[in-house]
Amino acid sequence: MISDQNSRLERSLDVVIVGAGFAGLYMLYQTRRMGLRAQVIEAGADVGGTWYWNRYPGARCDVESLEYSYSFSSDLQQQWRWPDRFSGQADILRYLHHVADRFDLFRSVTLNSRIHEAHFDDTAREWRVVASDGRDWRARFCVMATGNLSLPRVPAFPGLDSFEGRWFHTGLWPKDPIDFSGRRVGVVGTGSSGIQLIPVVAKQAKHLTVFQRTANFSVPAVNRPLTDDIDQAHKARYDVWRDEARRTPFGIAGHPPPHLDALDDSPEVRDRKYETKWGIGGNISFLYTYRDLLTNDAANETAADFVRRKIRSIVKDPSIAELLAPKDHPIGAKRLCLDDGYYETFNRDNVTLVDVRKHPIERVSRVGVRISGADYELDDLIFATGFDAMTGALLDIDIRGARGRSLREKWRDGPVAYLGLMTADFPNLFMITGPGSPSVKTNMVMSIEQHVDWIAGCLAGMDERGQTLISVDPLSEAKWVAHVDEIAQATLYVKADSWYLGSNIPGKPRVFMPYIAGLDRYKAICDAVVERGYEGFIMRR
Ligand code: NAP
What we know:
There is one protein chain. The protein is 32% helix and 18% strand. By secondary structure, the chain is of the alpha/beta class. The protein folds into two domains: 2-150 and 389-540, FAD/NAD(P)-binding domain, CATH 3.50.50; 152-216 and 334-386, FAD/NAD(P)-binding domain (3-Layer(bba) Sandwich), CATH 3.50.50.60. It is globular. 48% of the residues are buried. The structure holds NADP nicotinamide-adenine-dinucleotide phosphate. NADP nicotinamide-adenine-dinucleotide phosphate (NAP) is lined by residues 60-62, 149, 155, 170, 188-194, 196, 213-214, 335, 338, 356, 361, 384-387, 440, 499, 504.
């Protein structure tokens, strides 16, 4: 129950939105346009979400900036100038600031306020949302715009408290730049964050020790400044690009779907094609070389083998190359990383790679990381160890729906949601890019816009019809969850221990969370649900 003694009632709203990243800001924009009273509550000291917290050296988006940006305002997309093909964290944050300013969103954003309770009041038929600072918001609707990768996870290594050096997590990076010059730095984790950070820190640190548990596939980003020519050519046809993006599985234009299977080509032709994609850069481009790379083991192996050969050709020490060459999961089944000189970094004299699969980290000691009884002495320790993805930020909040039902209880065996938009027994609670929606397997900004537009349309329709309550039919929800799983089981995604499956969190139920049939197909399903009178939803006056 919400404790009334300490909470302070702020305001009664139509919509309370939790989170001020890409999702929360656009939801605010849309609800404002509809004349609803809306407020965004944000834990950080600024807007930006992911791009506010992940300030680690080398942080950069792996979707091209001309795509990874809002499409809802033609003026905005014509006037904003991205500096790079794949822009860095600071530029994306600057962009979100610009958006918040331009559309006068800041006045409805409460910063430095972390929501820890959201309870539905059955009698008043409203959500009561309480922040850790005691502020209490009430609203007819609650929208969770809490992000998919926003609850950072530091592994429970014993002894971390005793470490006398500095330690950081990539997802909670300090605002002031950190200087690693002259220092002995350790990095745990070689996912997308580690693979971006390691080359940058290696150039500054006196010595860098990389503690690798699972070798990861990475392909070159081939980042470069966005020239005026490219920028202008894209802007001249921006609507066409956006239209195309919405009709693709990933919400990204410019990548025509492949028509051949990998084994249709001879090994020589295949290698030539992979080589071309390697030179172009980008992960979608690479995985779109053939149409069966994520459904057929033998096809996948041709791409995996190509990347392993690349690693062996780049890394001079054969034993280090072998350690860096992934062999235990299909390429692309975990997020395919993009890098800028990652494998080359291991040719540097000041970089050491340690295999913590073979010899796991025992503890963090006063002076560093202890493995097999010996200390790797460090001044700084960086955790690039990822997030409790997709459900973490939602379950971090004590969410209670009708009759006090707890979301943590309901999702004990894994997330259950209809279209990733709502979950049964939690009336008037929406999730933006929730589990069971395409979200992380697409251009997030496109998926966010699709969800926000759908929710806004739903709210507008309810108002017109005088309806005040929306909930989900449990049977439709169960069917959707089964469908999401069926699609995943037909692919190689389920063959890797990834955060898509929750495998990175000890004890988390193993459920494949994103819907991977594609944003185009998903959008068509959501639109058909509306055409059929919100099939699977229950609306009441
Ligand atoms: P991640 O992909 O989950 O990687 C975490 C890393 O930490 C893995 O190498 C993992 O090893 C390691 N690790 C975790 N616990 C460990 C332990 N106890 N001992 C040793 N190693 C441990 O996390 P991430 O790199 O932060 O990336 C998460 C996602 O965020 C990405 O997949 C991507 O979607 C997104 N992201 C995107 C960008 C971009 O746009 N360029 C950049 C960063 C992140 P195991 O594999 O063995 O578990």
